[in-house]
Amino acid sequence: MQRWTFALAFCAAVAAAPAPAHAQFTPFSRDGASTESHTGLWFGTWMTGNTPKLPIETITRATKEAVTGGVALKVIARPGSIGRITYEHDLGGSFSPSILTFYAKASAPVGLRVFRQGTNGSTVVQLTTQWKKFDIPTTSVDWLLTFELDQAASQETYYILDRIGRESTASAQDLSQATTGPDQDISTSQLILGAQNIAAIAQKLKNKQPFKIVAMGDSVVAGSQIDLGNGYGWNAATKNAYLFPSVLGQMLEAEYGYSGIAVHNFGAVFTVAEAISNNEVQNKVLSQAGAGDLVILELGGNDLVDGTSVAQWKTMMKTVIGQVKAGGVTNIIFAGLTLEGPILSDAAAISKAIGELVTEEGIAAIDLSTYAIFRGANYSWADSANPSHPDASGHMFIAKMLATAFTGKHFNVVDLKPAGSPPADAGPDSAPTD
Fold first, then answer.
1. Structural domain count of the chain
2. pLDDT tens across 1-49, in order?
3. For the chain, which end, N or C, has fewer CB atoms within 10 Å of the first or last residue's CB respectively?
């Protein structure tokens, strides 16, 4: 999705987290939202290569194990990863107030580097399994606010950040509003719909047969904001490699032990209405996809932002799906919607419409609307680059969820354990589950 006109209105509509007790505290903010009300938004995950590494190097999750407001950011570093996240703070070379402040804890004692090594303000703090407030006096800092493990993780390691911002003078540590886990979770089995309708592709995978994945979508599939946290320096080929359809192909080849899945991404088809009026299915999708291939459609967010009703969107999607089928392609996945704006108020209607498309059109789908807000809007932002687009880790996680439509290896999207596993222990100060 490309349009930004909704951002200010939506950010104002989302209920912000309770105000912290420290009057001097100023969170980082942008477009009417802050790092307190939109935990994880604008923090991009740093990737170490021009092609995705599997498993996903760094995953960001929102967690209720928090100091204030009931939502904090958990950064999960896989073995070999430093778990770097990056925020472009837009404050130039100076902080005013001049103290960077945050609370942090980790799954085990680790060193956490704040700001990149060799830059102004770079320092390493020591984390334990208990919350601690850190205050870093500085007036000249790097333009990228980064957090990363001082040493690459030897085993899966996480750290949690909360109440990231600035203070004019350092306030005392205050854990009076701290909340604990474990977190509410949901399985991919509840998000993947109609997997039986793409069983032919699952069989091709088992038989190690070649096929194409052909995706059409809006600016999400065009890779907008995907390189947040990576200096916005990725070329078109690198962006394309990290798009969720491309990562899905890579994951499936790794899972089934063969190569032969060709991926073609057609982004910048900004609305379903434009797709129909410009005959984009014929011009783009069917220029590559044929019988036996897989088509992924990611469309609709901009239509809803522009005032299209859910019912109207569903009708238009049926038209697009019909055009794909007319070209002889029957293996179709709807992969949306990633936009948090309209789905906040229309989530139930959107999920219902997606389910109806699956039943009526014989397609598969991933309900990203439910994925985004099943715990509430304040938990929606951890793998988003902005209110409309996932970052690279977010794209990879969508692919990870989509892969379960073929493998059947469902997992919980918050604690990442196989579906059916008991809730993860949130740590030594954990509380009973909800």
1. 2
2. 443 332 323 333 333 344 444 458 889 888 778 888 889 988 999 999 9
3. C
